[in-house]
Specification:
Length: 387
């Protein structure tokens, strides 16, 4: 069953870490014979080392997830890694180069008797496409660990070697396009974070307090015990969990007009910038419509002479400062007074518009490359579905 990429594109929910995009392929009508993984591959788990005794700088150390630390020795090179302990849904990844494989993950090798009919790279591509099925092999409550016996019973198609080579080539062409698109996105997103720093290099640009060029408001949470505040709500209400890492609102709850009237929640109007100022500080989003906000959020509502998206782009720097200066034990945050006194460079309105326009063009390129990723993943799924 394929997870439609167009749904990811429409939602804007992109996470560019290695293996965010994956396809689950149905082989019910496979035209080639199916074999169980245990019949054709061996699992080779890694070796446990500790950071305190093996810390170094040369090679990354991998368990079942991402890089843990670095060491000066390696025991694997260019391998597909399968999670063993503490599995997440993204439980298969390809690690390029030399690295140390911990015992919390493993790699695989083709059984000697199968090497003349099965290419390792082909199996790796199939495993990447079957991550949901592999994750379903996990057992446990809070920590999910792979059931190796169940994993070995997963079936994969076994086409002729020449067909495997063709499939690998087709997928790699599309994967290269995906990697290039990811690189463009990552570079442009990094460039956006330098927006405020680049402003400071301009001559004769005054630094002004946010409180003097905008209205700063906080919010609140209507009592859950009062049904009149929640039942049949029509007002979109945000908490920090709905502020995405890509500066977009990712969802909302609904409250009533009565809740807005009677409680501390306030409306962050369309075109304001919403900062997470308490708990998970360091994130922010642009209000694409009116939202009520809770006490962990602060809205910056710009004055008429300030471009709304200028505040958004300046917030890359603001969010970093908030994250650095947040106070508290357990619950960290900053006050509204702190935010009002934060200073940003404020060029003339015409320069603001020019800079926002340039950032908008970069954002268009980012979105186009996200869509390209979706298209290429769809094509990879089509290739796998035809096996």
């Amino acid at each position: 069953m394929y997870i439609e990429k167009i749904k990811i594109v429409e939602s804007g929910d992109y996470n560019l870490s290695g293996d965010r995009y994956r396809i689950v392929t149905d082989y019910t009508n496979a035209k080639w014979p199916l074999v169980e993984l245990g019949e054709v591959i061996d699992i080779n788990f890694g070796e446990r080392i500790t950071k305190s005794k093996n810390f170094g700088s040369k090679y990354p150390v991998y368990g079942g997830g991402g890089e843990s630390f670095r060491t000066d020795n390696f025991n694997r090179e260019d391998e597909y890694v399968i999670s063993r302990f503490a599995m997440a849904e993204n439980c298969v990844r390809f690690v390029k180069g030399q690295f140390w494989m911990m015992d919390s993950g493993g790699t695989f090798s083709i059984k000697e008797e199968c090497k003349n009919k099965l290419i390792k790279e082909f199996v790796g591509k199939i495993l990447l496409s079957k991550q949901s099925e592999i994750f379903a092999c996990a057992r446990g409550g809070a920590q999910k660990n792979i059931n190796v016996d169940h994993f070995k019973k997963i079936k994969i198609p076994l086409p002729p070697v020449e067909t495997q080579k063709e499939i690998i080539e087709q997928i790699e062409v599309k994967q290269n396009a995906i990697e290039h698109a990811k690189a463009i996105i990552e570079n442009l997103e990094r460039e956006r974070r330098y927006f405020s720093q680049s402003l400071r290099k301009l001559n004769d640009i005054p630094m002004v307090e946010l409180g003097k060029i905008s209205k700063i408001i906080g919010g609140g949470t209507p009592s859950k015990e009062n049904g009149a505040y929640w039942k049949n709500g029509t007002v979109k209400w945000l908490s920090a969990k709905y502020i995405g890492d890509d500066q977009k609102v990712k969802g909302y709850d609904l409250i009533t007009e009565e809740a807005v009237k009677d409680t501390a929640t306030k409306i962050a109007p369309k075109n304001s910038t919403i900062l997470v100022s308490r708990v998970s500080v360091g994130k922010f989003a642009f209000a694409d419509q009116d939202y009520a906000i809770n006490q962990d959020l602060t809205a910056i509502i710009p004055n008429e002479n300030v471009e709304p998206k200028y505040i958004l782009y300046a917030s890359f720097d603001l969010a970093e400062r908030i994250s650095k200066d947040a106070q508290g034990v357990g619950v960290r945050g900053v006050t509204r007074d702190y935010i009002e006194k934060l200073k940003i460079p404020l060029p003339p309105s015409e320069i603001q518009k020019q800079m926002v326009e340039e950032m908008g063009k970069e954002e268009t390129i980012i979105e186009a490359n996200k869509k390209l990723i979706g298209i290429m993943e769809q094509k990879i799924s089509d290739v796998l579905s035809e096996i």
